[in-house]
Design goal:
The protein is elongated and about 90 Å long. A hairpin with a 5-residue loop joins strand 3 and strand 4. The chain starts with a helix and ends with a helix. It is an alpha/beta fold and about 350 residues long. It has 15 helices and 4 strands. It folds into 2 domains: about 240 residues, no CATH class; about 100 residues, D-Maltodextrin-Binding Protein, domain 2. The longest helix has 29 residues. It is found in: Membrane. It is a multi-pass membrane protein. It comes from Clostridium manihotivorum. Keywords: Membrane, Transmembrane, Transmembrane helix.
């Protein structure tokens, strides 16, 4: 009963500050919708830099031939900054075209360089550009789905917003509210679990509203509303559990917000939110196993496959197990901190 009493008091307190409540509620909802919307519009693309050592006609002819290929972007490149431009991701490949129909392909990926070499040889032989469509199709099959990318960004966002909301417990300790609560027979763990439950329930409401809005928009992310709701529920469990751990680990709200931002970003980088797991170096693949983001993305992938099996359920148990462990550790830290 003590846990639900704390949860109720948190709810009552939130309604006293209506502007803050609306802002706290709308920001995560807006972030979820934007994350899903933006990721649904992301398609594989190849940026090609062209250095034309001729009169300019060679470049224009090649560009005209590739205009019909969706996802292929052709631009003039600076010969003096080829390597820098490719390292920064401005171009995936740079092609130097000469008057005598010879060419030089520069690329950081040797396999991709071989493919482009073959495409250019065929172009100067037959006058047709063939092969880029196959590369783009393979890139799409190898990349993460819109739902997986969106799920990763949603988790990153909700970890930060959940931590900011969970900072109430730090504020209560500083203002003496928590001390007055502990004078009664209640233990610190009751207060910790009560605030965790409130944070979890408010996050679920945000997810439900987000899914409701998304279902009315013409956005196809590869999962239906019920599947998206299940994914959101899992993400809510993770975000509220990790935020509970962070606030019970930190002494100030500033510390909690900084740590939440850093942890969320590192988890996203290592867990596959920005770079697909199958493209990571072997060492990082092993390290990613320790991030809960990886298991969330794997779970989303299994949901999209639509096959219920042991492989589908395994990520759920790992996610729930890690979440429970974080809450238990948070309670232990809180008992020492608030005692």
């Amino acid at each position: 009963m003590g846990i639900f009493l704390v949860t109720r008091n948190e709810l009552i307190r939130s309604f006293k500050y209506k502007k803050k409540l609306v802002l706290t509620f709308l920001v995560p909802v807006f972030a979820v919708i934007v994350a899903i919307g933006v990721n649904s519009l992301m398609n594989p693309s190849i940026n090609i830099g062209i250095i034309d050592n001729g009169s300019g006609q060679v470049y224009q002819q090649f560009k005209d031939k590739t205009n019909s290929i969706s996802g292929l972007n052709i631009k003039y490149a600076n010969k003096g900054s080829i390597n820098t431009d490719m390292i920064l991701g401005k171009y995936a490949v740079v092609i130097e075209l000469n008057k005598d129909q010879s060419f030089v392909v520069t690329c950081l990926d040797s396999k991709f360089q071989e493919n482009v070499n073959e495409i250019m040889k065929n172009y100067f032989t037959t006058g047709e550009v063939k092969g880029f469509e196959d590369i783009l199709t393979k890139m799409e099959s190898d990349s993460m789905t819109a739902a997986q990318r969106g799920g990763g960004f949603i988790l990153l966002t909700l970890i930060i917003t959940c931590t900011l909301a969970a900072c109430n417990i730090i504020r209560d300790q500083q203002e003496g509210t928590l001390r007055r609560f502990l004078i009664s027979p209640n233990k610190p763990v009751i207060y910790i679990l009560g605030t965790f439950l409130y944070n979890f329930l408010s996050t679920i409401v945000q997810i439900v509203v987000s899914v409701g809005v998304l279902s009315m928009l013409p956005i196809d992310i590869g999962v239906n509303s019920m599947q998206l709701l299940l994914i959101g529920l899992i993400i809510a469990v993770v975000a509220s559990s990790l935020s509970c751990l962070i606030v019970n680990l930190c002494k100030t709200e500033l510390q909690a917000s900084i740590i939440a931002s850093v942890v969320a970003l590192i988890m996203s980088l290592l867990g596959g939110s920005f770079l697909p797991l199958n493209k990571m170096p072997t060492v990082l693949k092993y390290i990613s196993n320790s991030t809960i983001t990886k298991w969330v993305i794997m779970f989303i992938g299994k949901i999209q496959e639509g096959v219920v099996s042991t492989a589908t359920i395994a990520p759920i148990w790992i996610i729930l197990g890690l979440s429970i462990l974080m809450v238990i550790v948070a309670c232990k830290l809180g008992e020492r901190k608030f005692a």
